[in-house]
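Handout, section 4.2: multi-component inputs.
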Amino acid sequence: MKAKIIITPKKAVLDPQGKTVQNALEHMGCQGVAAVHVGKYIEIEMAPDADCAQARQALEQACHRFLSNPIIEDYTIALE
Amino acid sequence: MRFAIIQFPASNCDQDCVHAARVLGHHAECVWHKETALNNPDAVIIPGGFSYGDYLRCGAIARFSPVMQAVRQFAEAGGLVIGICNGFQILCEAGLLPGALVRNRDLQFHCEQVLLRVGNRHTPFTCQVPPDRLLKIPIAHGEGCYFADEPTLARLEAGGRILWQYCDVNGELTDRANPNGSLLNIAGICNENRNVAGLMPHPDRACEDILGSTDGRLILDSMVHTIEQARALPRAS
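Output:
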């Protein structure tokens, strides 16, 4: 089982990295871009015998307490 | 006065803090992050640097070091704790101070002298700053843009907890004087009990004339003065 965690900056937080990438995309001729947000991707491999529900609960806590900072970031967890 | 300077892997201003404390005539002792006790200091300094390589987020991993439990207990018992630069980031990540520090708005690492207006001179970190005195203290950071939600900012303002703000030579909180995009030009804050403070500028690098400013002394002197005052009070039996 693998957890795919995506962490993105909250909308209210200044995201100069996203803005800079957006500007660069325009410079290279990539059209139609309305906004860019740069975040993080974390992949966690769970033990083969891990319980799916328990894993989700543990990962939620890990994301909330450590992997993301809820003041400035949002996260999503996909288990597969 | 005995300062405990917390050392994490990749702290790099620990010796600056030790030097500053000794220049001011105090005792300073480094405490490695794996320690679980602080050895009874009068105050704790969490120095600047790049603890744990700034992996994940600045300060995010340092907060789980064993020594942080001792720092938390020291703070909860009323001890004075100041976090400088990365130390400020660590205190925010640890939840000892509200808000977060994010990437500078221009994505540049800023290493320069800034001017600070003192927002509240009635705290253990600012009580020795003369009225209307602006502080000239250097910054050196890439992620010092202070962010907190509106209710938190309102609480900080109402509680007189915004201790230092970036300003121009006239003491005005202009956007131009703001090096990193911090909300309300915030350079440093304190907790509700006013015994834990954090700031991005480096008072440890502004304690000797040869460094271009001695204004950092006013912050350390404020802490020393507060502790000496508390000692002078008769103990309740």
